[in-house]
Design goal:
alpha/beta, five-stranded parallel sheet
């Protein structure tokens, strides 16, 4: 469904969850783009985000990575804690490695339903694509192209939001079913977090505890201790400077080559890249469409 409404708010509250930095980059891009058009922007990580929004707050923009065709559990928990509002406008942006394809299309449905129950009017939803950090890496050239495409994608989204453009999707029932079933993987996240072994390579730098988006890691006498609120984001595992964290579950899904967006950003931008060749195969169909429109 697409239509247009008048935009009245002045400020924008951006709330995001990010494990390995892709969604954080998208959230920061939104901040820059909204500021360019004169909006005042507040950026908060979901674990520190406010739970009450008043008259003075304008658009609420929520961003999160797609984890097993769903939003991270912490995002659902935050919405459940939100105080009810009367018709405040919200937009939901999901960030995935695979793009808007089955079953990812259902990854915003439950989030939007919960926001609507709290009185928000969700007028806009979109899928952005960033490098895939789980099971199968997108590869450096494709990842580099995705990072390059991000500012323009966000600028286009901001100009649609500014013009009051309304867009809501209708996921297929089968995608909703798969997304609901995949929630089991999120239940497994607690065990996953508990299974992460800290090896002798740990230098007690505290980076994992500082960056965990769920606040699930505390440092005790120089050792990282994992709690029961892991969201399976992979941030601590890929972000450890010495590779000291070794999960004992889902080992084959963790990328052997690691995952480092800063290193990808430094890679040379492929010139005249053959996007069809880089996205060959069904599983990259959504990425191909995102980059080429086909
Ligand atoms: C446990 C896990 C499950 C994931 N599941 C999906 C998925 O169902 N569909 C998809 O397209 N990408 C999936 N991804 C990839 C992420 O959505 C993607 O890499 C995203 O850009 C990560 O964002 P972040 O860097 O902000 O954490 C998954 C990643 C993880 C760690
Ligand atoms: S990031 Fe790695 S080295 Fe630093 S405290 Fe955590 S496990 Fe240890
Ligand atoms: S413990 Fe590690 S994998 Fe779990 S939420 Fe924190 S950073 Fe992510």
């Amino acid at each position: 469904m697409n239509c247009e409404i008048m935009l009245m708010e002045n400020n924008v509250d951006i709330v995001y969850f990010s494990g390995t930095g892709g969604t954080e980059r998208a959230a920061k891009c939104f901040k820059t783009s909204f500021e360019k058009v004169g909006r005042e922007v507040t950026l908060s990580k979901v674990k520190d985000a406010p739970i009450s929004f008043g008259e003075e707050d304008g658009l609420i923009l929520l961003l999160y990575p797609v984890l097993a065709a769903n939003a991270p559990r912490l995002v659902h928990d935050w919405i459940e804690r939100l105080e009810s509002v009367k018709g405040k406008r919200a937009a939901v942006i999901s960030v995935s490695g695979g793009g808007e394809m089955s079953p990812n299309t259902a990854c915003r449905a439950a989030v939007i339903r919960k926001l609507e129950r709290k009185g928000f009017v969700v007028t806009y939803e979109e899928m952005l694509v960033m490098p895939a950090n789980f099971i199968k890496f997108s590869g450096v050239p494709l990842s580099r192209l995705l990072l390059e495409a991000l500012p323009k994608k966000v600028e286009a989204a901001v100009s649609r939001l500014e013009s009051g453009f309304v867009t809501r999707s209708r996921p297929l029932p089968v995608d909703r079913l798969i997304s609901a079933a995949a929630k089991l993987e999120q239940l497994g996240a607690v065990s996953f977090g508990k299974s992460i072994a800290v090896t002798d390579a740990c230098i007690s730098c505290g980076r994992c505890a500082e960056n965990c988006p769920s606040g699930n890691i505390t440092m005790l006498e120089g050792n990282p201790i994992f709690g029961s609120s892991c969201n399976l984001c992979m941030g601590c595992i890929y972000g450890c400077p010495t590779g000291a964290l070794k999960p004992q579950m889902m080992k084959s899904a963790v990328l052997k080559e690691g995952f480092n967006l800063e290193a990808i950003e430094k890679a040379e931008l492929p010139q005249n890249a053959d996007i069809n060749a880089l996205t060959r195969g069904y599983s990259w169909k959504g990425v191909r469409k995102y980059l080429t429109g086909d």
